[in-house]
């Protein structure tokens, strides 16, 4: 089958939050406006019926919508809320119970994979392996900046997965780990706020060569920059780059991908992330799965400005088609 296109409905958060579109209307947008074959859902954000235990009627209605719009459920985002209580962390037993809650919901809604949030400990995933096998839903730990593919957290997690021999645990790649520069919109905002273009150019050059934020701050001071320029550099503190070639390390264990993006330009190019190289390598390693468009550029718009979420996702799918080879 190869690489297939999906949409994380996190991309449509403003449309949903402001009440402009409900869940069914967003399914229609995904299918008929954007032409996405797949969808990814955060059920706490956009619940099907009552979260976390929808009625059978709500589940059947959901499945009917998917059939109506010709959509395939690709991944369900899970959150293990270890700080649910103000005076203590959840015990491992409680975390495993929360994991099973999400595995059961994913199975009921038709999702074959759940996204496990990156801070979840490997011991919790390990203790949930039998449950994942029972419900036949995979658990993909998300590699999300500032983690890299070769961070110790990921290395130790993958040692556990490989030793277990399980087919129900693996990785989800978030394309934010391939960020090369600040998004164009962030640079435009900084220029309007008085940033010196030559300093912004230097910040971009340093990030493209994967230099640390501390080095950017030193350069800003040397060039006479101020708070605006420092703010741009500070926004990059979590943007730790992973070499796309590292995808080969765990090729058989990649279960899903988040196509994180911050801004698509008029020519349907992402202005901050490298997409061409990671998708090329995913094709070379035989990745047979989905990439869910995950738009997070809403935060770049302030005041009366508002992001056009639907148009941004549409452009992202145009780009993905180009690189996937549809």
Average pLDDT figure = 97
Uncertain residue ranges: none
CATH class wording of the largest domain: Alpha Beta
Distance between the termini: 12 Å
Give the SSE string.
Answer: EHHEHEHEHHEHEHHHHEHEH
- Kindly give the count of domains: 2
Radius of gyration: 20 Å
Structural class: alpha/beta
Largest sheet: 8 strands, parallel, barrel
Biggest sheet: strand arrangement: 1-2-3-4-5-6-7-8
What would you say this structure looks like, in words?
There is one protein chain. By secondary structure, this protein is an alpha/beta fold. Helix 2 runs parallel beside helix 3 and helix 9 packs antiparallel against helix 10 (213-222). The termini are close together. Helix content is 43%, strand content 14%. The mean pLDDT is 97.
Key descriptive features of the protein:
TIM Barrel, 326 residues, globular, 43% helix, 14% strand, alpha/beta, 2 domains, 8 strands, eight-stranded parallel barrel
Write a brief structural summary:
This protein has helices at about 15, 25-35, 55-70, 90-110, 120-125, 130-135, 150-165, 185-190, 195-210, 215-220, 225-235, 275-285, 310-325, and strands spanning about 5-10, 40, 70-80, 115, 140-145, 170-175, 255-260, 290-295. It is an alpha/beta fold and about 325 residues long.
Give the SSE map.
Layout: E1 4-8, H1 13-17, H2 23-34, E2 38-41, H3 56-69, E3 72-78, H4 92-109, E4 113-116, H5 122-127, H6 129-135, E5 138-143, H7 152-164, E6 169-174, H8 184-192, H9 197-208, H10 213-222, H11 227-234, E7 254-261, H12 276-284, E8 290-295, H13 309-324
Parallel strand pairs: 1-2, 1-8, 2-3, 3-4, 4-5, 5-6, 6-7, 7-8
């Amino acid at each position: 089958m190869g690489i297939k296109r999906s949409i994380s409905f996190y991309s449509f958060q403003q449309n949903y939050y402001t009440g402009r579109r409900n869940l069914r209307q967003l399914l229609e947008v995904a299918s008929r406006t954007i032409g996405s074959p797949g969808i990814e859902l955060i059920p706490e954000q956009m619940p099907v019926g009552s979260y976390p235990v929808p009625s059978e009627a709500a589940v059947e209605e959901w499945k009917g919508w998917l059939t109506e719009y010709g959509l395939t459920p690709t991944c369900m985002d899970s959150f293990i809320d270890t700080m649910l209580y103000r005076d203590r962390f959840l015990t491992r037993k409680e975390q495993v119970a929360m994991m099973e809650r999400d595995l059961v919901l994913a199975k009921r809604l038709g999702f074959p994979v759940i996204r496990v949030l990156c801070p979840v400990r490997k011991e919790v995933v390990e203790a949930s392996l039998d449950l994942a096998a029972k419900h036949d839903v995979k658990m993909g730990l998300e590699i999300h900046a500032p983690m890299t593919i070769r961070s110790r957290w990921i290395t130790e997690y993958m040692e556990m997965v490989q030793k277990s021999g399980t087919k129900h645990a693996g990785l989800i790649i978030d394309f934010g780990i391939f960020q090369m520069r600040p998004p164009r919109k962030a640079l435009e905002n900084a220029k309007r706020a008085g940033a010196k273009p030559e300093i912004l150019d230097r910040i971009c050059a340093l990030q493209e060569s994967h230099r640390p934020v501390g080095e950017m701050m030193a350069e800003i001071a040397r060039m006479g920059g101020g708070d605006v320029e420092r703010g741009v550099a500070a926004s990059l503190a979590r943007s730790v780059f992973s070499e796309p070639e590292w995808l080969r390390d765990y090729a058989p264990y990649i279960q899903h991908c988040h196509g994180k993006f911050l801004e698509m330009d008029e020519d349907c190019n992402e202005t901050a992330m490298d997409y061409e190289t990671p998708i090329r390598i995913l094709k070379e390693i035989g990745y047979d799965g989905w990439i869910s468009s995950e738009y997070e550029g809403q935060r770049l718009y302030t005041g009366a400005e508002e992001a056009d979420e639907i148009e941004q996702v549409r452009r992202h799918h145009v780009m993905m088609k180009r690189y996937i080879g549809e």
